[in-house]
């Protein structure tokens, strides 16, 4: 019943500003930045990620960095083209009917609201999607409808003026082209689907206590008048935001680790949070501004030290998880207790085997459906230590001819 809301909400002079750090793929705290400029309008990295998630329709995004960035580039190109169309429509003085937009938005909102038994459930799902109130969603959806209408009317105008001639392609044309070029068509690659438990290396209790004490001392320094940006540049261990004074940009609810998000939404602007502990370390948070469903946030991130004994302990735990899984303990039980929440548990869609990261390729060699791998390692790039993976193949697709 509630999937409709999730689907909807998730539902030239162009200058590329810079390439993106692939750590944003798995980061629980998105770092916003400008990735393109169209006229005087900026396209933000957060807009690219939002569009990618919307088009994925609940499926996981590519875990391979090259594939992820290729998809991001494709989405960025479409966002740029859409913005160009909107700007050209405005230049041509194209107008859209605000009453028609209002009717469309009201129908959509009423249709979604009808899926819920209570107003409380409706507002709860809105909040999970990053909107504090139905009014915020109405404003966002109205803007999307307005932009879509401008693009459609501008394209219609070009067609009417014969500046955009139609080029219809029939099913028969497609079949004919395929048959004529079958020999040149690449074969469909071998694919796998799998589920996994990924364990992070946890610090010792002593290291955790020392880091909490360090956080308390920095909070005391801030409360005594210390400059948050300067202290973040000096002390923060987040490589993405350290050099810019801990600035995380504008964040929405729904894409953050729960502990961080809970503190962010209740913290008054300008107030420094107490230490917030997540799987990524210990955060000191400050909300600078709140605008509709977005929060302008800074952080100081501290990470407890990790040593070889911590890595050895994690390796032993991974061996135990593999043994328990093979002995019949349910995957959901193990994932709930051991899995890193920042990583995907299930890769249910057929993923090309050749595009898997090398550790997965090696681990899946000679494995068949339902086999459980021995623990293997992947990089925890944020902390420069390994993570331990135990995976189970759930489906295998053999290489075959294109159809």
Q: How many discrete structural domains?
A: 3
Oligomer: single chain
Total strand segments:
11
Content-based structural category: alpha+beta
Strand order of the largest sheet: 9-4-11-10
Low-confidence stretches: 1-31
H/I helix tally = 13
Q: What is the share of helical residues?
A: 40-55%
Termini, distance in Å? 35 Å
- What is the typical, i.e. mean, pLDDT? 82
| Principal-axis shape | globular
CATH homologous superfamily (4th level) name of the largest domain: Porin chaperone SurA, peptide-binding domain
User: Biggest β-sheet: count, sense, barrel?
Assistant: 4 strands, antiparallel
What is the CATH top level name of the largest domain? Mainly Alpha
**Residues in β-strands, percent:** 15-25%
CATH architecture of the largest domain: Orthogonal Bundle
Radius of gyration of CA atoms, rounded to a whole number:
25 Å
SSE series: HEEEHHHHHHEHHEHEEEHHEHEE
Describe this structure in words.
The protein has 403 residues and is α+β, with helices and mostly antiparallel strands. It has three domains: 3-160, Porin chaperone SurA, peptide-binding domain (Triger factor/SurA peptide-binding fold, Orthogonal Bundle), CATH 1.10.4030; 191-201 and 307-397, Chitinase A, domain 3, CATH 3.10.50; 205-302, Roll (Chitinase A, domain 3), CATH 3.10.50. It is 44% helix and 19% strand. The chain is built from 13 helices and eleven strands. The strands form three sheets. It has a four-stranded antiparallel beta sheet, with helices on both faces. The two termini are 35 Å apart. Mean pLDDT is 82; it is low at 1-31.
């Amino acid at each position: 019943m509630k999937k409709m809301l999730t689907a909807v909400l998730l539902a030239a002079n162009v200058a590329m500003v810079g390439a993106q750090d692939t750590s944003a793929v798995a980061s629980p705290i998105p770092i916003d930045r400008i990735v393109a400029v169209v006229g005087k309008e900026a396209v933000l990295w957060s807009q690219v990620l939002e569009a990618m998630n919307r088009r994925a329709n609940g499926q996981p995004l590519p875990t391979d960095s090259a594939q992820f960035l290729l998809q991001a580039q494709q989405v960025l190109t479409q966002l740029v083209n859409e913005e160009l169309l909107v700007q050209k429509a405005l230049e041509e003085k194209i107008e859209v009917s605000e009453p028609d937009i209002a009717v469309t938005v009201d129908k959509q909102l009423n249709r979604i609201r009808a899926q819920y038994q209570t107003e409380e459930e409706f507002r709860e799902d809105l909040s999970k999607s990053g909107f504090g109130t139905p009014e915020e969603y109405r404003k966002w959806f109205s803007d999307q409808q307005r932009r879509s209408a401008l693009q459609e009317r501008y394209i219609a105008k070009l067609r009417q003026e014969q500046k955009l001639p139609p080029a219809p392609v029939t099913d028969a044309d497609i079949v004919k082209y395929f048959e004529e070029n079958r020999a040149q068509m690449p074969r469909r690659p071998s694919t796998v689907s799998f589920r996994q438990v990924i364990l992070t290396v946890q610090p010792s209790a002593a290291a955790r206590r020392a880091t909490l004490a360090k956080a308390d001392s920095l909070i005391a320094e801030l409360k005594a008048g210390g400059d948050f940006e300067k202290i973040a540049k000096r002390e923060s261990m987040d490589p993405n935001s350290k050099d810019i004074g801990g600035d995380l940009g504008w964040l929405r609810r729904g894409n953050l680790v729960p502990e961080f998000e809970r503190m962010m939404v209740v913290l008054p602007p300008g107030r420094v949070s107490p230490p917030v502990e997540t799987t990524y370390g210990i955060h000191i948070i400050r909300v600078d501004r709140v605008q509709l469903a977005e929060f302008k946030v800074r952080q100081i991130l501290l990470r407890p030290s990790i040593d070889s004994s911590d890595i050895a302990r994690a390796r032993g735990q991974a061996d135990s998880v593999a043994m328990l899984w093979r002995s019949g303990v349910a995957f959901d039980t193990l994932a709930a207790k051991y899995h890193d929440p920042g990583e995907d548990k299930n890769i249910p869609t057929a993923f090309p085997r050749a595009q898997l990261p090398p550790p997965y390729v090696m681990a899946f060699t000679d494995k068949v459906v339902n086999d459980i791998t021995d623990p293997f390692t992947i990089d925890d790039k944020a902390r420069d230590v390994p993570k331990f993976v135990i995976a189970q193949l759930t489906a295998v697709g053999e290489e075959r001819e294109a159809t």
